[in-house]
Amino acid sequence: MKILIFVFLFSIINASDYPNFTIQELHSIEKKSGTVAKNRIIDYEQSIALFKKYPKSKQLIQVNFYLNKLLPQYDAITQQQEDYWSTPKEFLITGYGDCEDYVIIKYFTLLKLGFKKEKLFLTTVREKYYGGYHMVLSYFKDKNKPPLILDNLSFKVLDLKKRVDLEADIFINSNGVYKISKEYKLTKIDNKFKQYEDLEKRIIKEN
Predict the structure, then answer these.
(1) Structural domains of the chain, with CATH
(2) Please, which residues have CB within 8 angstroms of residue 69's CB and are 6 or more apart in sequence?
(3) Which of 38, 54, 100, 199 has the fewest Cβ atoms surrounding its Cβ within 10 A?
(4) What is the pLDDT of residue 140?
(5) The organism sits in which domain of life (predicted)?
């Protein structure tokens, strides 16, 4: 029975209406986090409703541009811990996030707009010029073609081949963990990624 309940709840977080907020939630958020937080959420919901009228190519650009306007901040400051993956609701309430938080909210926002989860991946990349690691969102519009990259450090949506500053490491979504070949073919290397699993569990609790 517990397995069936989990499967049902898991389907919720991959449904097209997440993140969504009830009136009661908005009242609670306003009381706890202030009017600015509540208004940020309302603006998000209104903007996504507007984006639904656009073609998919424009939706990618608009989602990337809109969510990049949220303010960057290290996890150690916003969450008092390193490498914390905020849920979209947490990010919208605080208004601050690290690179993975932008990726997560873009991922679920695009699902909300009708994009297929099989084409969307949280992607860790190495920054060739700086040597550090970063996270972006990849969208595989066409199979075995370079994915389009949504990056909180860029308002442009370019394909991976044109992002000469980035070297892709792993691709993550609810189906598993993948590596990519030089021909842009994905190969599954694992069924699970712990931080993604933890994120899903916290999203389920939100609902």
Answers:
(1) 2-206 (3.10.620.30)
(2) none
(3) 54
(4) 98
(5) Bacteria
H/E stretch holding 171: strand 166-173
The encoded tokens of residue 35 equal 């009017």
Report how far apart, in Å, the C-alpha atoms of 114 and of each of 95, 137, 173 are: 24, 16, 16
Check if the beta carbon of residue 86 is closer than 8 Å to that of residue 97.
yes
8-state DSSP, 22: -
- DSSP secondary structure string, 27-90? HHHHHHH-HHHHHHHHHHHHHHHHHTTS-HHHHHHHHHHHHTTSEE--HHHHTSSTT----HHH
- What are the distances in angstroms from CA 110 to CA 15, 35, 115, 149, 168? 11, 26, 5, 13, 21
- pLDDT bin (cut points 50, 70, 90) of residue 6 is very low
Q: What is the tens place of the pLDDT at every residue in 76-96? A: 555 556 678 999 999 999 998
List beta partners, residue 179: 187
